[in-house]
Amino acid sequence: MNAHTRDVLKLKAAIEFGSEFAYTIKQGGLGPTLIISACELSSSREKAAEVRKKAPSRWEGLYVIVTYSTADEEEEDSLYDPNLV
Q1: Is the pLDDT assigned to residue 64 strictly greater than 80?
Q2: What pLDDT was estimated at residue 72?
Q3: I need a surface site. Which of 34, 52, 58, 80 has the fewest CB within 10 A?
Q4: In this structure, how many other beta carbons lie within 10 angstroms of the beta carbon of residue 28?
Q5: What's the Cα-to-Cα distance from 15 to each of 9, 29, 42, 61, 77, rounded to whole Å?
Q6: What is the largest CA-CA distance in the chain?
Q7: Cβ neighbours of 22 (radius 10 Å)
């Protein structure tokens, strides 16, 4: 797949699924893969769930993966207790 085709597919995905997400196309284990990333958004888990409902598992011949960040959630649920030191 050439760069122009990748750019066209990413633009189509942004129009169809939402422009607030980041789109990447990579070669994955199941073939060409569209990665939809909600990592830069606040409440990324909820946004990822929304786009997962819109996006099929295969789209335009691409396998689709939706990712999100759990960094904020991990800080809240941290097992580190500074009082135990």
Answers
A1: yes
A2: 52
A3: 80
A4: 13
A5: 10, 26, 21, 17, 36
A6: 56
A7: 14
Mapping DSSP to helix (H, G, I), strand (E, B) and coil, where does residue 27 land? Answer: strand
With residue 15 as reference, give the H or E element that holds it: helix 3-17
Please, is 30 exposed, middle or buried when counting C-beta atoms within 10 Å of its C-beta (0-12, 13-18, 19+)? exposed
Q: Where are the domains of the chain?
A: 3-9+16-69
Q: What is the pLDDT of residues 10-52, one digit of tens each?
A: 999 999 999 999 999 999 999 999 999 987 766 788 888 999 9
Residue 19 and residue 9: Cα distance in Å, rounded?
13
Q: If residue 32 lies in a helix (H) or strand (E), which one and from where to where?
A: strand 31-37
13 Cβ neighbours under 8 A, 6+ residues apart = 23, 34, 36, 59
Q: Is the overall model pTM greater than 0.90, yes or no?
A: no
